[in-house]
Amino acid sequence: MPSELIPADVRQFILDHIDSVSELEALLLLRKYADQDWSVQGVSGRIYLDEAAAVQILARLTACGLCVASEGVYRYGSASHQAEIVDRLAELYARFLIPVTNLIHNKPARIQQFADAFRFRKDK
Predict the structure, then answer these.
(1) For the residues 113-119, what does the mean pLDDT come to?
(2) Which H or E run contains 67?
(3) Lowest CB count within 10 Å: 12, 57, 107, 116, which one?
(4) Is pLDDT larger for residue 116 or for residue 52?
């Protein structure tokens, strides 16, 4: 089964911290070029996102402690215990793209968000 290709700790990290493939791509970009400063425009251009989406992704990665921000500049900045998992996640993503992306797409919160998009709400 493909989910067995992803170790439990990496799977839990994805479930806890990664909400989209774009978010994972941004994290792995920052990790790969950890000694480089990144602007929102730089990240959005590199992973083919609009700037508004890049702002949200970078804010989320900063809030999770996976990158640091200062005056509109972002850098990879994962805590040491997370850095080892992010390193392993990068390797797994390169080798097992489909199982990793399937895990992200099938997160329970994402499924609920999708379902909520179709709920009819009564205006008050």
Answers:
(1) 52
(2) strand 67-70
(3) 116
(4) 52
Mean pLDDT over 69-76 rounds to 95
**What pLDDT band is residue 124 in, cutting at 50, 70 and 90?**
very low
The C-alpha atoms of residue 2 and residue 100 are separated, in whole angstroms, by: 9
How far apart are alpha carbons 7 and 100 in whole angstroms?
11
Amino acid, res. 15: L
Among positive and negative, which fits the CA dihedral 118, 108, 89, 32? positive
Q: What are phi and psi of 75, to 5 degrees?
A: -145, 155
Instruction: Give residue 1's pLDDT.
Output: 43
Tokens read off for 37? 């400063």
- From residue 66, how far is each of 9, 38, 113, 118, 120 by CA, in Å? 16, 14, 24, 32, 36
